Amino acid sequence: MSCYRGGRVFCRGSRSAVPGVVTGKARTPRDGGRAGRFPLVSRAVADDTPSDGEVVPLADTFVSASGSPYEGKRALVFGATGGTGKEIVKECNAQGIPCSLFVRSKQKAQEMFDAEIETGAVVNEVFEGDVSKYEDVLRAVENSGCNCIMVATGCRPALDPLGPFQVDYSGTANIVSAANRQGASVEHVVLVTSIGVDDIFFPLNLFFGVLFWKKRAEETLQRSGSNYKYTIVRPGGLQDEPKGSPGAVRLGPADTYGLPPRKAPGSILRSQVAEICVSSLAEEAAFNKTIECVAANDEPALPIAEQLEAI
Ligand SMILES: NC(=O)c1ccc[n+]([C@@H]2O[C@H](COP(=O)([O-])OP(=O)(O)OC[C@H]3O[C@@H](n4cnc5c(N)ncnc54)[C@H](OP(=O)(O)O)[C@@H]3O)[C@@H](O)[C@H]2O)c1
């Protein structure tokens, strides 16, 4: 496993007109200031403020805006180069949460997030590794300085018979175990699994029991007995682009969606899932809960916080 510091690779700082304050492109929220969003702001750093073009370790440079519910949060995103993981990184950046990434290919991460840097988002540190190797996972969790862990890894079960066990179960168990070893420094673990994990007859299980193993991973997190909070997010079918209107996010408790008599599983945008994952870091109503999510066109949009309260 290898890693490299965002200070060298991803994070750029430039001298501000105000002595001791580093500013850069990273202060503008990507979303153009949607309600409830918090821009990144700089904070004073020591006298050795870098000159233009020099790089600054992210954790020493940026904090989320004062009063943000995400203030002080530092995320480590597993599966950051995947469809949902990439959206989680973007959403973290929009909310001012510095991110470290755990990826299989740092080259892929660099290509993927180069644009993010150009548009002003922030990536802190990249760890290259395989979630099925405990030593890779432990090293990232120990060295990232994160206090929130977001897990958006997943195998391609149709192509990889061992993937559901190795990635979806064992990989997540490794992350949980590494988090447990950090004591109080890890505060929250958010795990993306899937609608249908409670039902052994759900058709996706034909792919080498992928939902069966996701359910075992959920249980490992729930039973870890650690002091940190957890949130399990189970989406319906994932999409990158909406077919027509994206629909309003609908949240429900475990076992709301799936095979009859449950509601039809439906679909949801990966960006909507990312928003739920990141919101759950700040919404008390998401703590220690399993949340199923889809997007529906025939129902009114309700705030995520309000829906979480009802679960
Ligand atoms: N697709 C759906 O419709 C659907 C529906 C419900 C739930 N889900 C679940 O939701 C989650 C996110 O789905 P997605 O479609 O966004 O995922 P995805 O695009 O397939 O991304 C999966 C990520 O996991 C990484 N990964 C795979 N094996 C790994 C390993 N051994 N070590 C480290 N990283 C590894 C991949 O790395 P690379 O980038 O290097 O490939 C990728 O970044 C998954 O758990 C998925 O099963 C999917």
TrEMBL record:
Domain NAD(P)-binding: from-to ranges: 79-283
CDD domains xref list: SDR_a5
Signal peptide as annotated in the record: none
Gene3D superfamilies tied to this protein: NAD(P)-binding Rossmann-like Domain
InterPro entries, alphabetized: NAD(P)-bd_dom (IPR016040), NAD(P)-bd_dom_sf (IPR036291)
PANTHER family: FLAVIN REDUCTASE-RELATED, NAD(P)-BINDING DOMAIN-CONTAINING PROTEIN
Protein known as: Dehydrogenase
